[in-house]
Each structure stands twice: as structure tokens, then as C-alpha cells.
Amino acid sequence: MICTDGMPAAAQRCLLSQLAQAEARPLLPWRLRLARVHIGNYVMREYGAASWHFDATDYVAAVQTASSLPLRLDRRSIEASWDEA
Fold first, then answer.
1. Which end of the chain is more exposed for a tag (fewer CB within 10 A), N or C?
2. How far, in Å, CA of 24 to CA of 58, rounded?
3. Residue 8 has what pLDDT?
4. For the chain, what is the domain count?
């Protein structure tokens, strides 16, 4: 498990680079939020990570089962490179 608490810093980037060189494929299980889509695009592009419960199907299922949305949704958008939906 690699906890980045946002965009990967030097230590996390070093570890992700070593994992990529070893042909490991990290899985991204983050909650779907705008900033995390940006980070996901970066980690997937740079280190060959893969989505894990981080796609449109998971997002729709979460919204449909949520009793309320605690945070106001942002109107900005970022395209997820791994899932066009």
C-alpha cells in the first residue's frame, strides 16, 4: 500500500518508479473526486497503474446508493484517461 495523501511526492514517485521497472502494476482504489481523477491520470500514465473501483460503473453505483451527498459537486471536469464514461 502506498499512501500519497495527494499528488505523489519524491519518495512515492521513487517507489512507483521501482515498481514500474519491476513490471508491477499498482491498483488505484481512491474515492472518485475531481483531484483524484487528475492524480489517477498521472499515476496511470507515468507508472502503469490500473483502476480498481475507480471507474464510471463504481461512481454511478455509489451515487445511486448514497443517502446524501456530503460535499457539493464541482462543475469542473477532468477526463479520466482510463474510462471515457
1. N
2. 24
3. 87
4. 1
Contact between 58 and 31 under an 8 Å Cβ cutoff? The reply is no
Q: What angle do CA 57, 40, 52 make, to 5 degrees?
A: 45
Q: For the whole prediction, is pTM greater than 0.85?
A: no
Q: What is the pLDDT of residue 62?
A: 75
Whether 6 is in a domain gets the answer: no
**Are 3 and 26 contacting, i.e. CB atoms less than 8 angstroms apart?**
no
Residues in the chain: 85
Q: Is residue 82 part of a domain?
A: no
Q: How confident is the model at residue 6 (pLDDT cuts 50, 70, 90)?
A: confident
- Adjacent-strand bridge partners of 50: 27
Helix/strand/coil for 28:
strand
| Phi, psi at 50, each rounded to 5° | -125, 155
